[in-house]
Amino acid sequence: MTVVQAKTVEDLAQAEARDYVWTLNFGPQHPATHTTLRLVLLLDGERVVDAIPDIGYLHSGFEKLGEHLNYNQYVTVTDRMNYISPLANNIAWHGAVEKLLGLEITPRCKYLRTILAELSRISDHLLCNGAVGIDVGAFTFFLYAFYQREVLYDIFETLCGARFTNSYTRVGGLMYDAGPLVVEKIRAFVRNFPRTLDDMDKLLNRNRIFVDRTKGVGVLSKHEAIARSATGPIARASGVTRDLRKDEPYLAYEDFDFQVCCATAGDCFARYLVRMAEMRESLKIVAQAIENLPAGGVNVGIDERTALPSKQQVYQTIEGTISHFELVMTNRGFVVPQEEVYDAIEAPNGELGFYLVGDGSDVAYRARCRPPSFIHFALFPHLIRGHTLSDVVAVLGSLNIIAAELDR
Amino acid sequence: MIDRQTTAAVSSEFPSLAWSEFRGQSRAVVPRDELLRVLKFLRDSRGFDLLVDITCVDYLNYRGAQDRFALVYLLSGTRTNERITLRVFVNEPEASVPSAVPLWEGANWMEREVWDMFGIRFEGHPDLRRILLPEEFTAHPLRKDYPLQGRGERHNFPVLRRAEG
Asked: Chain A: nearest CA to B133, how far in angstroms?
């Protein structure tokens, strides 16, 4: 088989002159792309000779908006990046803002954010693995996964009133504290979810069709994974042991006992297994955190002048009233240093970081997001070359590309 | 986040680097001509094998800024867990830097995004096209002199109707 390195659409047109090579347009609206992304595939029979990703269909200028919305308003935009795990984006965004401010959040807030980050990891991995399942024909598996996502959405709804776009974090704290009902629901989830995971493992891990469709498909070597900046479960499935939760412990991860899940094969099946294993580890973290949830407030103190004081403080103390008005008045807000900072978390998809430039006002001068989907989609042509057309959906699914985060 | 030895080793190799630190993050300002050599040295000799991100900041109207653009290279080591931020300042007439694609394949799309959004050229990039915006777009919208609501590009898109298309 001859491999043609076509870079542009013009190259493709020339390649078309060789009549045995077909070009196939895949997307931007296609059930198996899940979101809006487009691929131009060059096919020799059923073999993919080359693939050219064409992205930008969902570009909405999130980074430009970040230069015009203040640090609390922009959290609503981060929800819409990776909307499969919006809470992880909220936590990453305000983590970066608090690093810029040099703010130390309360222990209860740290624990709650850790729990929510792990629940969103489970939610994201359920969707990703469920979608891989449905793309290669395992519909039951998908339904098992989606039933549990519904339970998670129910928890998020009880927590903050929103199921999908949560916007739950605030600078220096959270929107509300978690009530006893939330804690009870999370406990129930920790109790019941392992049974579903066992069922899901039984459905696919040794399923002949699934294993044949994913094993040895889209292999990414360890060296390639590092050279192409892969992070998260995709890098870990290739044998890179990097996990920011262990390597640069943030929030409360130092307090918990959990393992970093890795594989060495680097194919779609390894990525599936790593995600399945990570859900169990996430559940371990949630179980430890929810039983040891510290008491106390979720917002930083009134002296920090960043989080809104409680209503009791506003109505009964002069400091509370002043602080409240300072924060809600459009020409006041809080002051950030004129500095630059990068802060990243281990989001479900990989390293999600924000590069923030502060200019003194409460609006970021520059709010760069390092989107894992964008970096991972660049891997796609490399992974698919030489495989068949039906493998496109398996590889695409295992990379977990969320187009809203890809294009921002 | 970074070892003292690393800073010392890099400084002795490249004395022209200007170091600073904020919230425990080490940053160095690199002269444009030395960029590739510094990147190569960090990757090969100091274990910074992961290119986390390449991005750009437009300092138009920024208080106290001397230069127009800063390119920001975020590096990390997968074994050492060190992080370093490199900044290169470039200015308008010849706003370009050498491409990092020969060192890291992953730099390809990151540099295309910077070109798309800021209009900074990467010399030696194999495929420097726009990535998020359509090829016929004329401006670089993340520059500070580009308005938030655009310059009417959306209103002037050609409308295709089913009968014509």
From this structure: 6
